[in-house]
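Blinded run. Sample ID left blank on purpose so nobody reads anything into the name before looking at the predicted structure. Input follows.
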Amino acid sequence: MKTPIAKVRTECPTANKFSSIVKVHPYRNKCGLSRRDFATKGIVAAGASVIPSTLPSQSAQGLERLPFKNDGYNFWTWRGHKIHYVEEGEGFPIVLIHGFGASAFHWRYNIPELAKKYKVYAVDLLGFGWSEKALVDYDALVWRDQVADFLKEIVKEPTILVGNSLGGFTALVAAEAMKEQVVGIVLLNSAGQFGSPNDEENEAQESPFQKFLLKPLKEIFQRVVLGFLFWQAKQPARVESVLKSVYKNTSNVDDYLIQSITRPADDPNAGEVYYRLMTRFMSNQRKYTLDSVLSKLSCPLLLVWGDLDPWVGPAKALRIKEFYPNTSIVNLQAGHCPHDEVPELVNKALVDWLATLPSTSTSTSITPQIL
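Blinded prediction complete.
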């Protein structure tokens, strides 16, 4: 069935039934990830990833894989915190932002391929991956500021932001803060919700009883429950089960990926970071909505969507397209992390779309506003 609003299609025939491209089919209408999804189903190891030995580059679908390094690649100090990032290739810069609980290494099959034509950065958000487990109040603005400063201090030129899940919404809010430097955005099954008229009303109706009695009791209960969930989330069998529930083609759910999530750094702050993420960030999602951010943007947007995602279905991509017309959509038969499940198709979609943007040409000179 042809959809009237998905105007862009990328043809890439393949014998793998899981990695063929399909048209949008709005059989799901969930538009965001709930706190429960993140806490009980998500990739929720809040620590960084440390594997006992360095793993060599291997291939998936014939692609080169980024070599795993126990000590990471590059580090940058941001507001006194240690931030990890990968940098490869030469040319127009692309910045990759991972999803909740993951790290720069989740782009393992994308970085080497994209680096053949572009300068690729993949950054670990504060609290994740090899970046510091800082005890701060986590919300969308923390990562927005981190990515914005990364663009100003490390990238220093016009760029494309690419984000999966939580990284997708982070890309949007960072682009809104850096309009002169971000010339395009790519979202892969992005987090974020559209606003509801009831949100502000519910916030205003909070009583003193709720604020001063129920909230403290709720916090005690949350610490007990989330402490158990944090322990459970780090178990390899649990992580493997969750990954296989959101990867429709599970061939890339390997020991490399599982260990990169379950072997957190020996950091005493990891549990507290997890608690703050679950309670403060997730409960404040409604303060930063997709419509409020998209209404302030004008750059081209590409949606590369895994239509078989059990958390964020294709209906959300359609709604983004309806709200923000300067959008192209490529639909894939994949789950929540299409860049790792079907990397060859995601890489092709990115390269094809980038080739259509005048701003990515080396002959085009754009001077970013670096403050």
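Unblinding after everyone has recorded impressions. The longest helix spans residues 208-233.
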